[in-house]
Amino acid sequence: MRRRLEKKKVWVLYHEGALVGTCTTEVQSQRFDEAIRWQSPDARALHPSKLAVAPAMRGQGVVRRCFHWFDEQARQAGCTVIQFMAVTAHTEIVAMYAARFGKKIGTEKCALDGWENPVELTFFERIPGVDYSVREKR
Fold first, then answer.
1. Kindly report the CA angle at 80 between 75 and 84, in degrees rounded to 5?
2. Section 86-94 average pLDDT
3. % of the chain beyond a pLDDT of 90
4. Of the candidates 28, 24, 27, which has an alpha carbon nearest to the alpha carbon of residue 113?
5. CATH number of the domain residue 48 falls in
6. Cα dist. 137→29, 45, 134 in Å?
7. Chain centre distance of CA 9
8. Is 69 within 8 Å of 100 (Cβ atoms)?
9. In a domain, 133, yes or no
């Protein structure tokens, strides 16, 4: 765990002086060698993870602002893609990510540090600056 944290940047999110969330980011070329096959496996990629938002701030656009910020961080780091994931059982998060923030690549069971058993994850990719919002047809 310590070695992983040394490679990641940990961010604390504030709004009007109040703590509203946290996340981590990491830049690398491929995150899971033996797990999911990313659509862009050889790309220099930003990997945001551990995004958490205070319950009182959910639905207030914090995640949307984070993804715009991830886009900027990716561009500054020379990344051509943002690769991220969610625990598949967290269906509301998976649906939100798929509807607004990236293209679903697939699912796969993975062993995670701190988890007793492997867990199914849903993987997403995002091209920085692309609008992934699902729009109703009129």
1. 95
2. 95
3. 57
4. 24
5. 3.40.630.30
6. 37, 32, 9
7. 14
8. no
9. no
